[in-house]
Amino acid sequence: SITSTLWRQSKTKHRFIQKKAWKQHYAYRASAQYGLAIAHFENQEYQKAKDILLVLLKEDKNNLFYLDVLTDTYIALEEFDAALAMLAEKNLLMPNNQVVVLNYANTLIEAKQFEKAEHLLLDFLILNKGNFIGNDLLTTAYKEQKKMAMMHATKAEVYALLGAYPRAIDELQTGYNFAGDKPLVRKRIKARIIQFQEQEEKLKRLN
Predict the structure, then answer these.
(1) Could you tell me the CA-to-CA distances from 78 to 10, 45, 46, 85, 186 in Å, in that order?
(2) Taking phi first (over 0 means left), then psi (-120 to 50 degrees means alpha), and beta for anything else, what does residue 112 get?
(3) Which of 93, 99, 121, 176 suits a disulfide with 138, CB 3.0-4.6 Å?
């Protein structure tokens, strides 16, 4: 009947309004809780921040804002295993995601797992060659492993991304000297020096 049809339509509309209101309420509450977690973190109340963020991430498991702050919180608490387990899982679900990979690599470095961080970053930088943070973290991973030729070569990439080609070339030349008995590394570094010299000349002509 018309009455029953109108009743069903009314109920459907009512449920839609309720659902929309619930979503808005959740969004406001989550936003407030997220802000509170950040405040706790900035006040070095890391356990309080962690407790809030774990609840938020449970309710919205792929929220990268929550994951980012929770990673920093785990690091501050030196709970590296918990952070690495979380990030390893997310890295499988979101391969090559910038937020996940960079947090994962940073945590590996903080946990002194430098070789794992190196391999993770090398894979990431194949597709994200110009990523400043990725190159900077890789520089740290090389430095901690005393891989000085690669450390200077990667640091050169960081300077190049800033347009500081003279400093980039200096780093490459230092890396070349450290490469010693590694002819392939020396060859790669020499080729990069030439590329950066050409880029520097182009900049000079533009100015």
Answers:
(1) 54, 14, 11, 14, 38
(2) left
(3) 121
Crossing angle of the two packed helices 64-76 and 2-42, in degrees rounded to 10: 30
Q: Which residues contact 124 (CB under 8 A, 6 or more apart)?
A: 96, 98, 101, 102, 105, 131, 134
Number of Cα atoms under 13 Å in the Cβ half of residue 32: 6
* C-alpha to C-alpha distance for 166 and 173, rounded to whole angstroms: 11
What whole-number distance in Å separates Cα of residue 83 and Cα of residue 108? 9
For 28, phi and psi rounded to 5 degrees? Answer: -65, -45
Kindly report, residue by residue over 95-142, the tens digit of the pLDDT: 999 999 999 999 999 999 999 999 999 999 999 999 999 999 999 999
Distance between CA 75 and CA 102 in Å, rounded? Answer: 14
Residue at token pair 């970053």: 121
Distance of alpha carbon 29 from alpha carbon 169, whole angstroms:
51
Cα–Cα distance for residue pair 78/108, rounded to 1 Å? 12
